[in-house]
């Protein structure tokens, strides 16, 4: 966490959902889970909904997120 304290960034992305509250307490930056990047690409028209979901599934399989809380939260990013 020492590295995080030394950063002067607007945003910080993490794959560790359990660390999210601690990171938010350590930095002034906005802290979010990494799948938020996919959501941003969807909103900007870079990816369509199907492609964003496919990429999320690929990430989830690669990082062993299937069934994990971060995966469920990431899926909700595309529920609208």
**Major sheet characteristics:** 2 strands, parallel
In order across it, which strands form the biggest sheet?
A: 1-2
The oligomeric status of these chains comes to single chain
In the predicted model, the low-confidence regions spanning at least 5 consecutive residues are none
- As a percent range, the share of strand residues is 5-15%
Given the C-alpha coordinates, what overall shape results?
Answer: globular
Helix content: 40-55%
Number of helices: 5
Q: Indicate the mean pLDDT.
A: 86
Cα radius of gyration in angstroms: 13 Å
Counting structural domains, the number is 2
Q: Which structural class is indicated by helix and strand composition? A: mainly alpha
Topology as H/E string?
HEHEHHH
Secondary structure: number of strands = 2
Distance between the termini: 34 Å
Q: Which helices and strands occur, and which strands form pairs?
A:
Layout: H1 2-5, E1 11-14, H2 20-26, E2 30-33, H3 36-43, H4 49-62, H5 69-76
Parallel strand pairs: 1-2
Notes on the protein architecture:
With 80 residues, this protein is mainly alpha-helical. It has two domains: 1-33, no CATH class; 35-80, no CATH class. The chain contains five helices and two strands; from the N terminus they run αβαβααα. It has a two-stranded parallel ribbon. Helix 3 (36-43) runs antiparallel to helix 4 (49-62).
